[in-house]
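Continued from yesterday's entry.
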Amino acid sequence: MRRSASLILSVAALLASSLADIRIYGPTALKDEFKANDYVIKSSVSNFGNIPYGQKILGRLYYNEENADGCNENKFITVDFTNDPDELITPIFLVNRGGCTFVTKVRNLETMGAAVVLIADNKAEDVNNIIMSDDSTGTGIRIPAMLIGKRDGKDLMNWFKQASPEQQKAAALAIEFESLKTADLVEWQYWFSSSDDRALDFFRDFEATDLRLQSNQYAKFTPHWVSYSFDYCDSKMKDDSCISYGKYCALDHQGTKILGRDIMMENLRERCIWELVEQKELSQRAFWDYMRVVHQLCYTTVNEDCSKNAVKDLQYSQEKIDNCVKNSFDKPGDASSDNRFMKEELAGWKQQQSGYWPLAVVNNEQYRGTINERNLRTAICQALTESYRDACNDVQIGVFSSEKITGTHLIMIVVGLLVINLLILAAFRFWQKKRERGDLQLQVHSAVSNYFAISERK
């Protein structure tokens, strides 16, 4: 019941994390253009890059009509990073939507020196309902990007065109990124499919971090599996790509013989391993270990044989997993009947109203930005109540345990290192003396041999 309740999330709460306020900082002539909106521009943050939740950025605005869409990677928007309002180099680049993908233009502008990218929409629409999605090449982008309305973008650009060079240098914006909801225990979910390479890389990279967060009771993780319904497809497609006769489906894995049905069955096996974790028959680590091992063996082309090899290597009970899969169908063992686990997962996925995955949800808010170990760890720590954040951030430097490092601990570490050094020095001196004795014995034997050789000649 608790698991089912956790899947029902309000759409309003999920959309809340998509917002960031942009406030016109100066000059007065630019502020006057946005006086009616209290000098604020609404925006929607991208689903790639590094989104600094709960932080503020103050920077200078740049716009170059010769590279208005930011798609020309060889056309620098500016090389003049002086006159930043907080005396830190924080260039905010403004470009038009279109001409290339969101990811391409943001990557180009990051290379040019941008700290933040504002993209003006080319349609009159509510940007709060628009998500700038990753085109699968956004990995590695380390700056935030935001979509602003068509009218706001046009007003900024028109002002920039008629402003004097001195006024342009004074154009400054303050950007405030909304915080994720905070809690003493962060509950976060990860939506994925067993055939997605980005998800599998994430599981590999995040395993140690999650186990440390869990052991210190700062975060509670729940995995979820993505599927779709193919109710109106023909029988062959339902058989090849689905279980439960078209109710829960996945796209075939391109370039392999793995069909959507194989992917759904692997999703179900993984869901059953998680079920054993929830029933305390396996440890929390068991799920992460399985995800790592099964994809080391087969990467994204996981089939039943590969799964069994991973279970055997990890010494889990294959019988318990098989029984869980079998009994999850309304008619045990009949994969054409409804499945209670996938029914629950599909209902939760529909509640997310998301067109992209993998997807992370932190304290019931969809996370925006590139999902990697560093970014998500930072977001989870930021979502903790303030009294716990410093301890959570210890993960970043590898100092994360149930106790804080004290002066006594440091003294013990120093003493231990000193003892090790002394032992190494003693061993070296013993070896050196032994070698000297050996050399001396060799010299004595040589001298004695020479003496007898001389005596014999006499």
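--- second protein ---
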Amino acid sequence: MKALVAQALKLPKTQIFRYGLAAIAATLTDMVVFVALNTYVFQFDKFPVAGIHITRETLALIASYSTGVILNFLISKFYVFTESTLRGRVQFIRFLLGAALVFVGNYFMLKFMIWCLPQLLDFTSLPYGKLMQSVLERGISAVVVASASFTFHKLYTFR
């Protein structure tokens, strides 16, 4: 374990690299939670919540994204943007604002991918097709919004 920690400390120290590590950790956590919920936990296509029906994918996205946001904030605050002098509460509120904007972008991108991917590939004929489709849908939508997220947090959240 000590060797692993020592190796991690030798990684490049640039802010963009550290942000990339934070984003990878948060995105992988997000994707694992999304795929697990969407593929294995949620058994129905729609769930009644507060009088409206929410799709399985949307509910999985809300849960997985929330998990990723909390992890990403903690890593960003204590590892990426350590020079920020703003109070933690202010950073967290700003981070949540950025996360909300990114969530909306992710939501529409995910909806687009749910519509688009089956047009391109027939997942039903593939082994683990539903799993592959979930991974691709969430993965592509997460990658598309990553650069906007970094810019927002660098210029506003942790300035």
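The chain has one domain: 14-157. The chain has a mean pLDDT of 85. Will compare against the first tomorrow.
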